[in-house]
């Protein structure tokens, strides 16, 4: 997950001892499950027996080897039963360092003195004979890998490790340095920020468009479909049988499904709103409008769910990748159905739009400030003015009841001096650049 390098102007023994100490301190941190030391040479004890010394003391090589094997070992010595429990006894004679081997006894001399291994051999306490190629900033380095298990917070671990490194730098010996690298949470945090920013701007865009062309309250409740779907999915992810965590794969799935989770809510909300416009504001009209598109909206979501079902049936080594993506997408889509059928519909009756039978495509007092902000933003660019003019002309010609729409948001007197010509073309009935032709009555 994150790597720590111990490097600097140190000899191999001091560097390895310092790396072991830092590894043990990292493993003792509350949020860590363990740390592994790598890229260091293995310890090796070399015993070089002198032939002249063997002859001097009348020993053979096999006698020396047997004496080392017998003297350097740990032996169990039984147990003692007490009222508080059993006490295990064990003799600890295993030699681990060069000094321990030097003090091993090979035998007793005629004068009663002990013959030590150091009398007949040279003991070298060093490392295995191979080259070490690990470098960090041009210096030999020991690498510590901080690991985490599935249910641990990688971001919290990374933060705690970096805080420890900053404090540990002040207590390092002369010539020693320590630093972190390869922090994989960088990609996790980047993907998480991307998902949050995409969700924010997507929800904002949905809100602005629906608030402009439908109703402000309706736009809010449709926008709430995004957090409802995502929070619902996050709630059930750790449960059986899903057992999912927040990682790069699941965050990719959230970003993938971000653009389609509110489609059914938009369809149902627009249908109910259209029914209210035509027949008036009532609970029955909301139900009729929602019921008109309930089946196609539901099957539209279910077909997308069916497209991702094969991903959760994949087997083999790659199955964890496809199952993580597919399961998150399916859960988000199912929660979008719950939101559009059980949460959105009960809120639609409170989204008032006007009097019975009136065609109020731009509702009431809420759209003036929104349209003014959007109009001024578009006009300020200047580049999109021709495109907006053409699009607005086509829109007003195709929209029923277009000649009475702008007046419901702004008084006619404010159109003359408040907005630019492009703004008046889009929103004001008395636009001087373009005048709509009168509608023809069909007998």
Give the proportion of residues in helices. 40-55%
Principal-axis shape equals: elongated
Second-tier CATH architecture of the largest domain: Up-down Bundle
Mean pLDDT: 75
Q: How many DSSP-defined strands?
A: 11
Number of domains: 4
Rg (C-alpha, Å): 39 Å
Elements, N to C (H/E): EHEEHHEEHEEHEEEHEHHHHHHHHHHH
Strand content: 15-25%
Multimeric status of the protein: single chain
Largest sheet: 5 strands, antiparallel
In short:
With 443 residues, the chain is α+β, with helices and mostly antiparallel strands.
Can you characterise this structure?
The protein is α+β, with helices and mostly antiparallel strands and 443 residues long. It has 4 domains: 1-40 and 130-182, Alpha-Beta Plaits, CATH 3.30.70.1320; 42-128, 2-Layer Sandwich (Multidrug efflux transporter AcrB TolC docking domain, DN and DC subdomains), CATH 3.30.2090; 188-350, Up-down Bundle (Multidrug efflux transporter AcrB transmembrane fold), CATH 1.20.1640; 367-427, no CATH class. It has helices spanning 12-27, 51-57, 61-71, 98-102, 117-120, 154-168, 185-213, 216-223, 225-236, 248-257, 263-279, 283-308, 319-347, 367-381, 385-398, 412-418, 421-427; strands at residues 2-8, 34-38, 43-49, 74-82, 85-92, 105-108, 114-116, 121-127, 135-136, 139-147, 176-181. Strands 1, 2, 9, 10 and 11 form a 5-stranded antiparallel β-sheet that branches. Helix 11 packs parallel to helix 13 (319-347).
